């Protein structure tokens, strides 16, 4: 009888332990408390930066982020229509219009890199080392192939500004090609067509191994500075917006933790950072 009793007690204890373990597992694997939509420029996605930052944010705040990477113009339009909770973009003048209309609030500078003009090593227009205005003039005069994103992105907006500064309009020229796509695909087409292209440095470096006969020809001009801002969509104007999560994301992006990641991102793989800290 004693042996039977001893065998039964461990069995009951094991069952209790199993139930406790199941409860613990359920508690530890809880679902995120809330979700948010981030509308962002393609360069932050194509470069791989968000693949590092988003998981840190999600773990820290228990928020699931749905990232929609589009041209900056489209991202800003999503904010204007209340279709995103936070924006990460690089078209300051367009962003300021949304601040004025109160579609976005809490806009903060977060980082920068620069634009560069990339082209074939043969450099048929002879722009290597030129300033931006001279480079665009030479491309126009020689009719060398130029590939534009043509998608109302921050990069496209900058490109059009640079053409206008040179008092040139290439949009009706046969050598001027528009992809209507992101930076990665536009770089690919420029490689195939052996054309020139304006790109952000981060996306170029992230894809450079695929474009080994395309090189940086114009860089360092002050007008090529590429500044990124983060902002939350105004939930007081757009009542379906998750204002709390949007604010958390803005605060995270300018935090010491996120800025430390931005500072180091790209150094191990490319020998230089793809973005630079630039908080206010």
TrEMBL record:
Record-linked Gene3D superfamilies: Periplasmic binding protein-like II (3.40.190.10)
InterPro entries hit by this protein: ABC-Tungstate_binding (IPR052738), PBP_domain (IPR024370)
Pfam families to which the protein is assigned, alphabetical: PBP_like_2 (PF12849)
Name this protein carries in UniProt: Substrate-binding domain-containing protein
């Amino acid at each position: 009888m004693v042996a039977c009793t001893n065998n039964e007690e461990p069995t009951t204890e094991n069952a209790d332990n199993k139930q406790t373990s199941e409860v613990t597992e359920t508690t530890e694997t809880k679902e995120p408390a809330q979700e948010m939509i981030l509308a962002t420029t393609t360069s932050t996605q194509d470069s791989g930066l968000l693949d590092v930052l988003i998981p840190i944010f999600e773990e820290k705040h228990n928020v699931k982020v749905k990232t929609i990477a589009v041209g900056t113009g489209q991202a800003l339009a999503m904010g204007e229509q209340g279709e995103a909770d936070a924006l990460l973009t690089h078209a300051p003048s367009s962003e300021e219009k949304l601040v004025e209309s109160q579609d976005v609030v809490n806009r903060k500078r977060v980082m920068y890199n620069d634009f560069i003009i990339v082209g074939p090593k043969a450099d048929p227009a002879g722009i290597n080392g030129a300033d931006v205005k001279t480079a665009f003039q030479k491309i126009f005069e020689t009719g060398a192939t130029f590939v534009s994103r043509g998608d109302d992105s921050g990069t496209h907006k900058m490109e059009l500004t640079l053409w206008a500064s040179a008092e040139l309009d290439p949009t009706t020229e046969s050598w001027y090609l528009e992809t209507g796509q992101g930076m990665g695909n536009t770089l690919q087409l420029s490689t195939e067509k052996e054309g020139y292209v304006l790109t952000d440095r981060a996306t170029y470096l992230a894809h450079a191994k695929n474009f080994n006969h395309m090189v940086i020809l114009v860089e360092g001009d002050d007008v090529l500075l590429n500044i990124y801002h983060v902002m939350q969509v105004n939930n007081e104007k757009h009542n379906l917006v998750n204002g709390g999560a949007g604010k958390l994301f803005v605060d995270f992006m300018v935090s010491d933790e996120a800025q430390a990641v931005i500072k180091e991102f790209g150094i191990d793989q490319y020998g230089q950072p793809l973005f630079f800290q630039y908080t206010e």
